Amino acid sequence: MAQVKMQTARSTEKEPVAAAEDLMKQLGSITPKLVMMFASRERDQSALNRAVRERLPKGCRLVGATTAGELDNTGIHSGSVVLGALYGDFDVGVGLGTGLSLDAVSAGGNAIKKACEELGVRQADLDPRKYVGLVIDDGFRYKKEELLLGILEKNQTLVLVGGGASDDNRDISKQSSQLHVDGEVATDAVLVALFRTNAPFAALRSHWYIPTGERMTITKVDETHTRALEIDGKPAAQRYADLLGCQPSELEFGTPKGFAVRPTALRVGREYFIRAPWKPILEDNSILFANLLEEGSELELMKIGDMAGMTKSFFTEELPRRVHNPQAVLLFHCGGRMWYASATGKVPELAETLRSAPTAAGMNVHFEIYSGFHINTTLTVLAFGSN
């Protein structure tokens, strides 16, 4: 029998050594192979890393990031540190790629190369039935699509899941994020944790939207490929507002009538990958997206469903169908989902759904990664089970 299990711990202690002692006490006598650490941004990350690293078993890997909120089975928290200590039948290789803002393709390529070297496997030989990659990037560099090109350059079949390290500071000018890789704390970087296991596993995603069958075509973009200038041959913001029956000024993500209620999705086979617009630029009637846009691409309009109900169904129905006897789930929860849940008073209901999940640890992220795509407004998950 092969299995991967996880023990979690959470601390609100502010002083790094006190937090580390509290966390280690909660983990008890297990001997983890990998510890995921999700820490609130305002903490001294270097001191916290050092304190936790010193208390972990020799050979145990430490990987993690700063957050816009920490998740476990008891709910969605802020200002804390959550650990997910994984143990069982798996090996893990870890790679860090730096210089993300200068050359994201190379950063991604270097990260997966190092992870593969640690496992003694060629990138081209990564069998998706035995290997899966967890990816965390410095979310505020907005380089997910480029770094994914680097990670997947030599093997497009590798399944990837994860999200962007984040910050709960709402002041855009002050936001920053950091990554933890063993004893190193880095920024402007991407990490890959490459798992090899015979235990059941799956990369999954959950959103609370329903397809409508209505489609739009991005007919003109700007030179950065992040702003839609025209949709269906018309000024983008006005066209989107007309489809939703509102004014362009009401479109911004998080507003009651806007993008969070009726986002766009890229359909891939039977899957819908949410790629919601971010904000309208009223000066020129364009729309800013978080992901890269291509002229001629077709997107489908979605509509919002039951936020808490669909999330609970994911944990209780879909996840057990996909992963036999699920034991551990790593959660990468979109900060935009959290923002909209807060605006609509749904956070308590959403947090309650985590009690229905297998043993869980994770964070609110700055945009998500799933199956090689940069997506948003989604919960992405790496789940492990036993056979």
From TrEMBL:
It comes from the Bacteria. Residues 31-235 form the FIST domain. InterPro entries: FIST_C, FIST_domain_N. Pfam families: FIST, FIST_C. Residues 236-372 form the FIST C-domain domain. This is FIST domain-containing protein.
